[in-house]
Amino acid sequence: MPKIAMLGSGFIGRFYADSILGQRSRDSIVSVYSRRKESAEKFAKDYHCKHWTTEMEEAIAHPEVDLVCISLPNNLHEIAVLLCCKHKKAVMTTKPLGRNATEARRMLEAVEDAGILNAYLEDLVYTPKFLKAHASVQNGALGRILWAKSRETHPGPHSEWFWDLEQAGGGCILDLGCHCVEIARSFIGKDIRPVEVMCWADTQVKPIEAEDHAIGLVKYENGAIGQFEVSWTFRGGMDLRDEVMGTEGTIWINNFLRTGLEMFTTGKGADYVAEKAESNTGWLFPMGDEVNDLGYNHMFTDVFNAFEKGKAPKETFYDGYVVNAILDAAYRSARTKLWEPVQLDIWRGRIGVSKVSPLTEYDADHYLVKEEMTHYGAKKLILKEKTSGKIVEKILN
Ligand SMILES: NC(=O)c1ccc[n+]([C@@H]2O[C@H](COP(=O)([O-])OP(=O)(O)OC[C@H]3O[C@@H](n4cnc5c(N)ncnc54)[C@H](O)[C@@H]3O)[C@@H](O)[C@H]2O)c1
Fold it and tell me: Which residue numbers delimit the GFO/IDH/MocA-like oxidoreductase domain (predicted)?
């Protein structure tokens, strides 16, 4: 049973605490660090922490703490990770791991040198819908995965530091694209090397230096394509959707809006609806159990089980590093308007995977293009002659 130090008492720190204290009922947050005394004290009271502090190192070094949860702005992840290494405390870090792959790589190398458990808290590959979809993909229900698309768009983040390029490290590509990239990468196969990225990005609405809207394509060595669509300018709440297309099937996931729970209210008694909901009157799309539906419960269960068994969780700092490297390529591509290579100095997946041949054998002389059942009862085959390359039709009945 890990005893946790929570670093940060803001938005995600509280979601994490709700999940950690809510599910197994045997895990505890024993210390909390926050910049301001009042926030630390309030968090400690709300989540029954014995100890609070305004000194980050004090929370990490606290003798009872054996697992540290980093819920701080992006520019503080590395500082916190290095302190965990110094005190040899297991560490889990929210997304994105680093502001770029250089930072992420330093963190990866530091935790591995220190020999501590490291978890990358990518909750969206732990949602119940993702887990079911991923199991179907693994079982071959979709055949060979050709395309995996993930979209996260909302009206923009909730704290000032996100909007500051130095502290955040990027705009919506880094903030939201990190989720989308890891979702697509998981469907395509985490052992398949991402090779190059093409990305459009712009600042269409907000008065900021970073991008507030972007679309990107990530090409994988086996020929599969990942796609991310991210925005801080979308109106209407938080849109979280994934699509997977394979040679044998398709999956569509709607994670947040239109999930089956729809409600109308004039506003009487209106309250919190769901993350980034823009209204609490009219037609609403609340979440049934936000902490569970966003994957936090399954994520912490995996991390804590790994901690107790001395194993690695499903998502480690290595995954965070790969995601950062893909996003670095996206930023380069948005500038150069070219396909940019993904620079991965550390690659632990398969190497030299070639693109699968698109030719399906029909008989000795033909490849199969398509079968079609017509509305007038005839079954047609579209075939390609192997020698001439000519496309022909064959009617079966
Ligand atoms: N689904 C997710 O996985 C998810 C969702 C939201 C945020 N995040 C990530 O969580 C991290 C924190 O984001 P948040 O939404 O909780 O932000 P937040 O602003 O709500 O909270 C940040 C916390 O860090 C503290 N803080 C801010 N600036 C600081 C500084 N200079 N020094 C020390 N402490 C400081 C704040 O007081 C607060 O306690 C970010 O890395 C963000 O990307 C992840």
Answer: 130-251
pLDDT tens for each residue of 103-154: 999 999 999 999 999 999 999 999 999 999 999 999 999 999 999 999 999 9
* CATH classification code of 3-123: 3.40.50.720
pLDDT in tens, 212-264: 999 999 999 999 999 999 999 999 999 999 999 999 999 999 999 888 888 88
Which CATH code, of 3.40.1120.10, 2.60.120.10, 3.40.50.2300, 3.30.360.10, is assigned to 125-291+315-341? 3.30.360.10
Domain boundaries for CATH 3.40.50.720 within the chain: 3-123
Alpha-carbon span 113 to 60, nearest angstrom = 18
Please identify which residue in the block is written with the tokens 């569970």: 292
**Spatial distance between the Cα atoms of 47 and 107, rounded to a whole number of angstroms:** 29
Ligand 1 pocket, 94 CB below 6 A?
A: yes
Q: How far apart are CA 207 and CA 34, in angstroms?
A: 29
CA of 198 to the centre of ligand 1 (A): 29
